[in-house]
Amino acid sequence: MAETEIPFMFDQLKERFDRDAKLSQKDWSILVQYVKYVELQKNQILLRPGEIANYGIFLMDGILRICNHYEGREYTRNIFTSGDFFTESGSFFSNQSFGFQIDALEDSKVFLLYKTDIQFLETQSAEFANFFRKQIERALIFLTKKVLENQKTALERFLELRKLRPSLLGRVPQYILASYLNLTPEAYSRIQKQAQDLDLDQEKDPSP
User: Which of 72, 136, 174, 181 is the most buried (most CB within 10 A)?
Assistant: First the structure.
């Protein structure tokens, strides 16, 4: 990474923190001592199955995902884009592996913040503690929504993905989007065609 890019990346990191917590200059000067900058190439694995996720990830640029493999099939649990902060929460909180991996779907730039450092930062400022509490809340809400999402039809899941995360379509390979929606690639193609037919029908009959 070019040296001139480092301040810009830290500016992005500060903007990310400011969404959920207003760090003082003192807090910020402490934080920058603990984050570790990493660049990942497309398809590079950050967390391998069997490893423990002992860090949080600030995704500054690119796309990462959490996935696992079972009986020859790939399952994508979540896909993350620029601005997201996340970890493999089961591993992070239990200090054991559940077989998930984190890999890059594009060349990506991240800051890592290790668990021991997060725990230290939480003791230094109420804003740090507030920030990390909000990330835990988001993770729990996501898991609840994921359970409810799996109760919907395949078409409903696809339409919701298209509505809420349109940037993923055309950017993430279809077989990965299929695994995210718990579909086979063949089923994903059929559902995509159904959605296109539905769009055409609505264009012909725009009445509510």
Answer: 181
DSSP lists the bridge partners of residue 40 as 108
114 membership: H or E segment, kind and range:
strand 108-114
The encoded tokens of residue 102 equal 């984190």
Token digits of residue 191: 């559902």
Place of tokens 């500016």: 11
Contact residues for 16 (Cβ-Cβ < 8 A; gap 6+): 58, 83, 85
DSSP line for 36-104: EEEEE-TT-EEE-TT----EEEEEEESEEEEEEEETTEEEEEEEEETT-EE--HHHHHHTS--S-EEEE
pTM, entire model: 0.89
Instruction: Give pLDDT tens digits along the chain (208 positions).
Output: 444 456 678 888 988 888 888 889 999 999 999 999 999 999 999 999 999 999 999 999 999 999 999 888 999 999 999 999 999 999 999 999 999 999 999 999 999 999 999 999 999 999 999 999 999 999 999 989 988 988 999 999 999 999 999 999 989 999 999 999 999 999 999 999 999 988 776 766 655 5
CB 75 within 8 A of CB 42: no
> What Å distances lie between residue 17 and 3, 82, 103, 124, CA to CA?
22, 13, 23, 15
Q: How far apart are CA 159 and CA 66, in angstroms?
A: 22
